[in-house]
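B., you asked whether I could sanity-check this one before it goes into the benchmark set. Here's the sequence:
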Amino acid sequence: MSFFAELGYKISEGSKKVVKGVNDFAETTKLKEQITAEEKTQAELFMQLGQLLFENNPEQCRNEPFSGLTQEIFDSKETARQLKQQIESIQAADGKLCPECGEKCSEEARFCASCGSEFLCSEPEETAKVKTCTSCGDELGKDDTFCMSCGARVEDELVAVE
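And here's what the prediction gave me:
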């Protein structure tokens, strides 16, 4: 074989190897992206499954191996409730909060300017009635779906105490 023919053959073979390598890399990258998308989907589904388990079986979540995570969730919910109360205290400093929508209103207002609800008393929200859990009697936050003490689902038949 002549020198130039041999050189052409080597260049052609080398080019084929490079093209195959590029195609393999592109295909591998595409497959890795699909794997990442599937793993993200799995993580989202696991989060939804965990939330459904927690919401529908709170007592089962208090048992091992869930108890540690369950307690962290309850602690986080309690912290969020306390932070919301701090916000309400700050907002209520210059007036009162509407018990229906939570908007700040002037102290002398008889109706909420935001939702139109009538104020039944002129006392600030801090002296208003407190919702408690029908299962254990502990105090509930305004927006709680579950009792942070016993895990019971909060129903409409909440007991109100002075």
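One thing to flag: The beta strands are 96-97, 104-105, 130-132, 159-161. Otherwise nothing jumped out at me.
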